[in-house]
Specification:
single chain, alpha/beta, Rossmann fold, 7 helices, 26% helix, 28% strand, binds S-adenosylmethionine
Length: 202
């Protein structure tokens, strides 16, 4: 499996939080937290953490967040936010994970990974028994959300819930549920719905 390029995210990192898209995505963490129970002793993995949209909202509620991202520049912006219990981890998700986690969360990173089944199996392998996933991404779209898909490393034009649920179940997750968490208004005038998929290991 080849390591994906970080060029797009390294270049975009400094202004990431000011993008209109990021400002709309700020609605996601409180909605996710309302649906996903987390304990004060939990260690959470944020896959594709970027500048910390989810990590910074979750950190005050749990013991530890590992913010995994392959872009050093994105993690540098997160690190400057000064959260003592967020540990940045700069690597490809498929390089092997150093810990075990109680939950894996992610926002808008799934569509950058070609092999979604392998990604879900990596999450399952990294979780304690009873561990949870809470994953946010696009419902199927026609490629117009990012526009320059190749330059941004887009591997999927969103996900059909039935197909993603089947992959999650094959990876060992159960009680899979989908809900629309946000409808993003794009500068192209269109609206793109985002799902939250939750589930947990037996
Ligand atoms: C669209 S950004 C989302 C960042 C953040 N979660 C947010 O919603 O603002 C996707 C992030 O996933 C990271 N990423 C993509 N593929 C990855 C991989 N295979 N391993 C680790 N990080 C990856 C990218 O570097 C990028 O920072």
């Amino acid at each position: 499996m080849t390591t994906p390029s970080t060029t797009h995210f390294d270049t975009a990192a400094r202004d990431w939080d000011q993008r209109p898209m990021s400002q709309q995505l700020a609605a996601v963490p409180p909605r996710l937290l309302a649906q996903v129970p987390l304990a004060a002793s939990d260690h959470v993995l944020d896959f594709g953490a970027g500048t910390g949209l989810l990590s910074t909202a979750i950190a005050p509620r749990v013991a530890q967040v590992t913010a995994l991202d392959m872009s050093a520049a994105m993690l540098q912006v997160l690190d400057e936010k000064g959260f003592a219990n967020i540990a940045p981890l700069q690597q490809d998700i498929f390089a092997g994970l150093p810990g075990r986690y109680h939950a894996v969360v992610s926002c808008m990173a799934l569509h950058h990974v070609a092999d979604t089944g392998a990604l879900l199996r990596a999450f399952a392998a990294a979780l304690h028994p009873g561990g949870r996933i809470a994953l946010v991404d696009l419902y199927p779209e026609d490629g117009s959300f990012h526009g320059d898909n190749a330059a941004k490393g887009v591997q999927h034009f969103g996900f059909a819930p039935e197909a993603l649920q089947a992959l999650a179940e094959q990876a060992g997750f159960g009680h899979i549920q989908f809900s629309e968490i946000l409808r993003m208004q794009h500068r192209n005038g269109r609206a793109y719905p985002l799902f939250l998929m939750t589930g947990y290991l037996p």
